[in-house]
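so i finally got all the pieces together for this one. its two components total, 416 residues if u count the protein bits. some of the lines might not be protein, just check the labels. i wanna see the whole assembly predicted at once instead of chain by chain like last time, that was a mess tbh
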Amino acid sequence: MSRRTTQRGPRDERGVLAARILSVARTAFSEDGWAGTTIRSIARQADVDPALIYHYFGSKESLLDACTTVPQDFLDRIADTWAAPRDQLGERLVALTLENWESTDSGPVLRAILLIAAHEAGTRAKLRNLVANALMGPADIGQGEAERGRRSGFIASQLLGLGLMRYVWEIEPVASMNAAEVIAAVGPTIQRYVNGELSPSSSATVDG
Amino acid sequence: MSRRTTQRGPRDERGVLAARILSVARTAFSEDGWAGTTIRSIARQADVDPALIYHYFGSKESLLDACTTVPQDFLDRIADTWAAPRDQLGERLVALTLENWESTDSGPVLRAILLIAAHEAGTRAKLRNLVANALMGPADIGQGEAERGRRSGFIASQLLGLGLMRYVWEIEPVASMNAAEVIAAVGPTIQRYVNGELSPSSSATVDG
């Protein structure tokens, strides 16, 4: 576990060091805020020279961007899930949400985006884009962009709230419940947001 | 709007200054983190002497506690809502959530609790307590504490996620949708978490 064992060559070392810098940066930006975080403080916690961070990432802005960018694999899995039969989408999307949070690749990125978006406008725009495009991009649900946006928004409100409860705030019993129980409870919510009735006017046909 | 107009007497002045300190503290703890916030920095932003903050609140810990304590009125409104007919609870709880976030009394406190709970253990315990007791305290739903806890957790996952989408991350169209649309869309979700079927075993009775 000594650092030396990871230094097998320039490329490996770069990957290891970059990953360590990103991990430290995510926590720093999330907990100390954009304004309260400096390249110097990240360098100190990651045990690297500040110049290396500038060399790898260019600037504090680019470092923030890098540490809040979801892996391509994450986007691919979302696209795959939307290819499932429509009546399975609710449960499949909840299952995918749990997998994504539990993944060491995408979990820390999701956490960082949600926490940093609360105070940093650029990350908020990124979250907005993720919800509007990546999360719902592959879906052909809803009639037109407006309805698609509404359904996307409600799906995100439930799935992001679930992720925070279970993995960030760690509130029991949701935090420790097994995946099957969570999928059974939340799947129907998401299924309704995908293709159920959402508007109040349907139950009573109002006309003028 | 000058500060002088608020200084009508010692009691009024104390209320005004305390409210200003709490407001600044909520933003500071949320955006700069617990570790990154000092009484001195709050005093500077609130334009008061640090000694006044110690005089009013005693310590940084007590100040955090004060600025993340929900108003009694908020708890009373929750209790009132749970007294509604059971089949109206879904819509009533969503409507209450929107009111609470839009209230200048409880909205900033909710925001502060959710953001600070992400990195500060004491506030996380407070959020946990709020979900387990205050949010569901007046309710007699579920058979026993375990089921009650599960239902409470799922209700919170949706209502807290909705609050963040609409009021903190401000993601459209959910952020600007009118209240009736949000209540129509999310009410049935909450209604099902209150008294609908949540477990997977009901649709197929598995026995050994």
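Chain A has a mean pLDDT of 87.
The domain at 72-197 of chain A is CATH 1.10.357.10 (Tetracycline Repressor; domain 2).
anyway lmk what u think
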